[in-house]
What does this fold into?
Amino acid sequence: MERLAKLFGSPARSKLLRLFLFNQGIALTLVDVSARSSLEQGTARRELAELVSVGILIKRGVRSKATYRINPRFEHLPALERFIRDTTVLRPEYIVGALKRAGVLRLVALSGLFTSVLEVQIDLLIAGDNLDTRALARAVRGLEAELGREIRYAAFETADFRYRLGVYDRLLRDVFDYPHRLLIDRIGL
It folds into this structure.
């Protein structure tokens, strides 16, 4: 039980667990971990040390050259992975709130990893007016840090989206032909 108590000790630790469980097989440096999880390096270093001491992560190398990856031999890995996957959900209000800073949103559709259908090319589709691509990229990076996974997204100005919808654009068909969820629909799909 002591391992499980150490495991869920802080929000930073749960971010790191999601990051490594959703990206198994990838070795990350402290700088990579800090950037992908939006944590300060000191906090990330402490939490990584705890996860290594529990046995969930394996550390290779020393100091700045050290890399971390999931330990495939950790005895509770399948159960932990299932638990984290089942409980990792971003509330729709949180997603919309993060994206609102990028411009006037007319459509926000979730697919792919948000609907557990991995065949789709994108996970997040956004249409709006006066979209600021840098603000949008920042918002998506913040969502990625919370989820622990890369989010594939596409953003269109409303006029471009309507045109693509009218010509049955393959990317849009990939979203709308598979299970999806509309968070905002001011276009009238």
Summary: Residues 2-86 form a domain with the Arc Repressor Mutant, subunit A fold (CATH 1.10.10.10). The longest strand covers residues 104-110.
